[in-house]
């Protein structure tokens, strides 16, 4: 679903009136495609790869959350940002959507300005991701964002969190005893381990706005916009457990190697006087505490 001038949006809703309203709000700026069922939506997403999906939770054939899971499990559609649209007014439903990989929620009845602003914000991220691809801001070994890409992105997301009064979380992560691993198995095997760990980070940072990055050597970070403390802890623990369970074969296949990871978590609802450098420093302090108290753990203290 690509055009020369417009980004594309797939709107999924079984109510014709809702499709009409959203089309009227967005069609001037974006190319719009529509689906009235979960199955049709998934088919269109795979075939057309829209830049953004607006997904109703209550559909006639498949629950919208199940559609979201299918989208995030499919490599062809995993990176497409999904905004859930719903008439439900439940914090648990909203939290479930975010944990499954949704980037935002828009509630019915639709407010013209809210819809346009929310969509525009996420299209800015899409545009930035395209720029990253063009400029080569990807770490060549692990195929995730590099330090320069991370620095640019966290500055943007920090400003957005302040402007929209939304939480933002960050993990500072370090592969435990990586020097010993390199000394034991060699640098090529060390590279294989880093690549395998980076895949785990990408699978756990499900939403397109989430940014796993290699910050240098065996140090990594994950930026989680619009993510509060409790949700961040769940993701961090999932990463820790997945890395602990990881097994990477040696080149000759004679041995299965493993490692662990230490993670420092920080989460905050930033204000205008807060500094992003202090935010990163707090994550670094928590990482240090995790390593000093035994490694292979998540250390987090909510910011007051």
How would you explain this protein's 3D organization?
It is a single chain. The protein has two domains: 125 residues, Rossmann fold; 164 residues, 2-Layer Sandwich (Alpha-Beta Plaits), CATH 3.30.70.270. With 304 residues, it is an alpha/beta fold. A five-stranded parallel sheet has the order 2-1-3-4-5, with helices on both faces. 47% of the residues lie in helices and 20% in strands. It is globular and about 65 Å long.
Summary of the model, kept short:
By secondary structure, the chain is of the alpha/beta class. It has ten helices and twelve strands.
Reconstruct the topology from this structure.
Elements: E1 8-12, H1 16-26, E2 31-35, H2 38-48, E3 52-56, H3 64-73, E4 82-86, H4 91-100, E5 104-107, H5 112-135, H6 147-164, E6 168-175, H7 178-185, H8 187-204, E7 211-216, E8 219-225, H9 229-245, E9 248-249, E10 256-257, E11 261-268, H10 276-292, E12 298-300
What is the N-to-C succession of helices and strands?
A: EHEHEHEHEHHEHHEEHEEEHE
Fraction of residues in helices?
40-55%
- The CA-CA distance between the termini, in Å, is 45 Å
Note the beta-strand portion.
Answer: 15-25%
Structural class, by secondary structure, is: alpha/beta
């Amino acid at each position: 679903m690509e055009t020369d001038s417009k980004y594309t949006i797939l709107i999924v809703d079984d109510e014709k009136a809702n499709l009409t309203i959203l089309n009227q709000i967005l069609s001037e700026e974006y190319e719009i495609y529509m689906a009235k069922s979960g199955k049709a939506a998934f088919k269109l997403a795979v075939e057309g790869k829209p830049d953004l999906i607006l997904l109703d939770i209550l559909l006639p054939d498949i629950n919208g959350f199940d559609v979201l899971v299918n989208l995030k499990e499919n490599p062809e559609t995993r990176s497409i940002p999904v905004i859930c649209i719903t008439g439900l007014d439940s914090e648990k439903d909203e939290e479930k959507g975010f944990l499954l990989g949704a980037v935002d929620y828009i509630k019915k009845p639709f407010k013209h300005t809210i819809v346009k602003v929310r969509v525009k914000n996420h299209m800015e991220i899409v545009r930035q991701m395209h720029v990253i691809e063009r400029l080569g801001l990807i770490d060549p070994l692990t195929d995730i964002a590099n330090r320069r890409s991370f620095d640019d992105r966290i500055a943007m997301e920090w400003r957005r969190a302040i402007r929209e009064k939304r939480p933002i979380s960050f993990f500072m992560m370090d592969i435990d005893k990586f020097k010993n691993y390199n000394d034991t198995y060699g640098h090529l095997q060390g590279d294989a381990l880093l690549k395998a760990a980076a895949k785990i980070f990408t699978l756990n940072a499900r939403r397109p706005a989430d940014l796993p990055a290699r910050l240098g050597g065996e140090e990594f970070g994950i930026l989680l916009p619009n993510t509060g403390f409790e949700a961040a802890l769940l993701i961090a623990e999932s990463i820790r457990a997945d890395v602990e369970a990881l097994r990477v074969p040696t080149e000759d296949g004679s041995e299965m190697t493993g490692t662990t990871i230490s993670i420092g978590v920080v989460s905050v609802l930033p204000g205008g006087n807060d500094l992003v450098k202090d935010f990163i420093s707090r994550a670094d302090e928590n990482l240090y505490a995790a390593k000093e108290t035994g490694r292979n753990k998540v250390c987090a203290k909510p910011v007051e």
